[in-house]
Amino acid sequence: MKVLKFGGTSVGTAERMRALPTLIQGPGRRIVVLSAMSGTTNALVSIARLLYEGETTAATYQIEILRQHYLIVARELLPEPAVASEAIQHLDASFKSIFGLTRNPLSAAGERLILAQGELLSTLLFHRYYTGMLGEKATLLPALDFMRLDQNDEPDADYIAQHLATVLAPYSAEQLFITQGYICRNAQGDIDNLKRGGSDYSASLIGAAAQADEIQIWTDIDGLHNNDPRVVKGTYPIRELSFDEAAELAYFGAKILHPSSILPAARHGIPVRLLNTMQPEAPGTLISDKTGTEAIKAVAAKDGLVAIKVKSSRMLLAHGFLRSLFEVFERHRTSIDMITTSEVAVSLTIDDATHLPEILEELRGFGTVEVDENQTIVCLVGNLIQADHGSARLVFNALQDIPLRMISYGGSPNNISILINTADKARALHVLNEGLFRQPAAQSQMAETH
Fold this sequence. Notes:
450 residues; 21% strand
């Protein structure tokens, strides 16, 4: 069993959908997980926002624009009139459900119903193309029949495994299944979703539930790169990463992978392979429980951080001080990304400033508070075994002209985190690329990768 997830750009046009059959065919059973067509979720979010604001006319106009777009795609993808007619009936039913929500003030449940339509439409169109136009066999599995959240709004792994097995049971002779990413039901049975990046998460959850041999995440880039290709030229895909290394990169800014998406696969030891639909012959990146020997494999950067420094003489030899400090953030449901301490001060970062004024007001009860906004965490990931001297020296040599706000090293064998001003981010990524990946060993690795 393999689980193959295709992102929005991979199903973004009729042309892209026509390219998928060659990628999904192969030996063994396969479950294909599809995202919404690129741009659809953003359009649906915009429609829901307009309805929340009472802009019914504008929302209705946007719904009709989206409907016309899907009709064009359907007719291009499905030139056979009978196949197109049947698919268009289903499209119209989906859009009728959205239009129906414009008559009354939009509820949270109504918004989730709107957001679910993207994946329902993409799987409908591709399934009709694969079976109706190509004459191939494939079973459409509604994700709403087995994907479910628990009372804490977390995926209910036991429920998913049991109900996926139940849904698959009548099709023991079938080899190919198509289902939706992102969407699910909540503990009350209402339509819900796994939030942004949820299609990757769906694939990992389904892979774990089906005890898959491999999970493939197909996007428009050939794996996780050693640096940000939007900022640095000449980056290259990393051949192998451990689950922990991949999780660090995803959390600290590698956009190709959602931070939560590999956790179910990691728990079950299922390899995750990142592949490129535009370049399917490329080896991509393999994420597993194994790691290579490279000290530093990749650099990622996370923007939008706020640094907070609390200085207090009360810290000195005072047990319970840090607990009291952290309880401030817990009360305001704000996560901490990075922390460093000294005898009289604590510095930390947050990426959600929603409750910053209230947090600062409470923190001033502990001592002097300093705040720096527009900060970026630069994360260096690899096999950073503490006994392996030299990797930190290369990092700090490269960054010798970059002002450093905070440094975190030793909390993980896979991560060095450095806080800098966002204005210095591009320069930092460039000098790290030169200092870490232009070494002879890195040059040799890059040559092998290409």
